[in-house]
Amino acid sequence: MSVYRDEQLKALEQTKQRRKAAVGIFLDQQKTVEERLRAAPSCGSFSGKEEISVAASVLFSSEESLQVRIAALKNLNVAIGSDEQLALRVLELLEDEQESDMIKLGVINIFQAGQFSSAIISSLRAEYHQKLKNLLTKKDLLPAILYIVLESLAQEKDEFVQRMLLKGLESPKEARVEPDRAIQLLAYDLHAEYYPILKKIVEEPPTPAAKKEAIRALSGDQSAKSILVNTLTDKDENDEIRYASANSIAALDSSELYDHVRKILLDDEEDDEFRAALLNTASVLGDSNRLSTDEELQAKFSELSVASQATPLQKVTKRVLSKQLKSFRK
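Now predict its structure.
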């Protein structure tokens, strides 16, 4: 046992020495950028007052290379979450107009991750979100930063962001993100007043993706049922969009979904994969009692289940029939 313990202690000491050497190389400004960047991963999170202090000076130095500063920021993540003064100082980088977008993105990633793991970062939530809103005033914001900022604030149900997203849907020239992305973000706190613009997008879609997201978002609007039904039953429509309509109809009224799905399932001109997806949805979300007692539909299932070619529709049909048989036996 003592031999094993000694080996473990020796291994730990070797790891400690390797890390110490890596930290020494990374913090040494006399070393080349390449040498410091190679050492960075072996440093891990900086710890200890002196080590953190030197690493922070690297981060805030305008004379250091951007790559080295990014590496320093990444390895300061634990220290930032443990030191309020350092966290506040790092947060100020978001408002520095001369600062690199990559540094700002690194700061945002640390504060996003720290919301639930650091009491200090969590306590700075209001300050952090205000900095994010201030960033949105910049029109040339890096897309990666823009998406994170919008999603973070949308999750907080921020009214400023909601108005910005809605304005972009109403006036595409003023949009900051693609319409489908805007709808996804608005869905974090969907208001009834948004439904008219969503219906308009379904009827006059700027892109297929926007139409699909609008249909998904309309799953809480009873007045949109007719639009959803028309989309589901339109054979010229994209099957993914039709399927999204089926799910939204199911959310509004699962019993009504059955009647429309039934017609599609009985129509051999419809795509088999699409019918398989609808059958699966109907068996889970629809009226299972009507499904099991519909003689015409059951006859169609039996016909499909014995087909020689194994298609997605045949597989789903067999599963539905098997489930019904088990239920009957009970």
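Residues 324-330 have pLDDT under 50 and may be disordered.
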